[in-house]
Amino acid sequence: MKITLIQGDITQIKVDAIVNAANSSLLGGGGVDGAIHRAGGPAILEECRRIRDRQGRCATGEAVITTAGKLPAKYVIHTVGPVWNKGNDEEKRLLRNAYINSLLLAVKHGVETIAFPNISTGVYHFPKPIAAEIAVAAVKEFLAQDNRITNLVFVCHEKENYDIYSELLSRN
Ligand code: ADP
């Protein structure tokens, strides 16, 4: 198993699947969600709408999969991270679920290479160091049990997250 860390724009990464930090409406938003829909084109939103019509909103910690439209990736996995509320609403468990459920959906679709943004650390205000610890622990645990993912990329948009991940990943 291989974990890679880069600083950049997740829409540019050529992997089987990129993960989107979506909101439960699945109808697009700001931040990484907006960037993915802008760069991937309308096919992604069309498929999100069909999923919504079929199953309703996406619950926090759950994930759905769509085409990646014009992006270099094959799929976008849309997961909904928790909004930080001082740790009172099981946000840590829900953030972990967002990573694990994205990975479960990925392997179900034959994905071998996957890129994650720093879910919930933008407008959802999850404290970055805690979010990074949860993300790294969750994916390491998953990859240790399931060898179908050959490369997992953490894509940090900001230097602050990049530095946090860099330190965490060098530690163990
Ligand atoms: P959330 O609502 O889950 O907090 P945001 O999109 O606001 O989602 O932020 C999640 C993370 O995505 C933030 O760390 C933000 O810096 C990062 N981000 C924003 N644009 C991009 C991008 N193009 N590629 C990768 N990460 C991005």
UniProtKB/TrEMBL annotation:
Pfam families: Macro. Residues 1-172 form the Macro domain. PROSITE patterns: MACRO. InterPro entries: Macro_dom, Macro_dom-like. It comes from the Bacteria. Transmembrane segments: none annotated. SMART domains: A1pp (SM00506). This is Appr-1-p processing domain protein.
